[in-house]
């Protein structure tokens, strides 16, 4: 089993990993060659800007898979809105021939996306929560031994 990697912000420590999948409109097989390379670079720059860590990114001709760690200050839906919006604008600007197809309707991506959380072992969490109070009492008792008053 892989070791869990926790990330930090100024006031939080988190493990918020997601598997997200989305498709071009009509699931057209358009994400190939130079288009896929360009899309990958755009997704990476957006993730860097939003402090989203890419764990795995895979672009198939008709869909995109990303496994990423999204900070809790950013919702999954906000992240996807930014990624899909910014990449759609960039794709239409960089590849104007794509926009000439009458069925695009100024939208590159299909509506919606799939998202699934990737969590840590549920049994470990239950055990941690169950015994947390005992551990806190133990620490409290240990600290009382060293007080002067």
Keywords for this entry:
149 residues; alpha+beta; Alpha-Beta Plaits; four-stranded antiparallel sheet; two-stranded antiparallel sheet
Characterise this structure.
This protein is α+β, with helices and mostly antiparallel strands and 149 residues long. The chain has one domain: Transposase IS200-like (Alpha-Beta Plaits), CATH 3.30.70.1290. Helices cover 42% and strands 21% of the residues. It has 4 helices and 6 strands; from the N terminus they run βββαββααβα. A hairpin with a 2-residue loop joins strand 4 (53-60) and strand 5 (63-69). The longest helix has 23 residues, at 122-144.
Our count of helices gives 4
How far apart, in Å, are the first and last alpha carbons? Answer: 47 Å
Low-confidence runs of at least 5 consecutive residues: none
User: What sequence of helices (H) and strands (E) makes up the elements?
Assistant: EEEHEEHHEH
The order of strands across the largest sheet is: 4-5-3-6
Count of discrete structural domains: 1
Fraction in helix: 40-55%
The share of residues in extended strands comes to 15-25%
Largest sheet: 4 strands, antiparallel
CATH topology: Alpha-Beta Plaits
Overall mean pLDDT: 85
Class by helix and strand content?
alpha+beta
Q: What is the CATH superfamily?
A: Transposase IS200-like
Topology:
Elements: E1 7-9, E2 12-14, E3 17-22, H1 33-49, E4 53-60, E5 63-69, H2 76-94, H3 96-99, E6 114-118, H4 122-144
What can be said about this structure in brief?
The protein has helices at 33-49, 76-94, 96-99, 122-144, and strands at residues 7-9, 12-14, 17-22, 53-60, 63-69, 114-118.
């Amino acid at each position: 089993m892989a070791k869990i990697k926790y990330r930090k912000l100024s006031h939080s420590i988190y493990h918020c990993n997601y598997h997200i999948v989305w498709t071009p409109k009509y699931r057209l097989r358009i994400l190939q060659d130079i288009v896929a390379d360009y899309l990958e670079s755009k997704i990476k720059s957006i993730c860097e800007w939003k402090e989203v860590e890419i764990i795995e990114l895979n672009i198939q001709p008709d869909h995109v898979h990303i496994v990423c760690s999204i900070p809790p200050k950013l919702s999954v839906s906000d992240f996807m809105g930014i990624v899909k919006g910014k990449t759609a604008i960039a794709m239409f600007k960089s590849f104007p021939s794509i926009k000439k197809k009458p069925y695009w309707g100024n939208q590159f991506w299909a509506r919606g996306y799939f998202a699934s959380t990737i969590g840590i072992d549920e049994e470990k969490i239950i055990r941690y929560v169950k015994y947390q109070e005992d551990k806190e009492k133990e620490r409290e008792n240990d600290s009382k031994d060293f007080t002067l008053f």
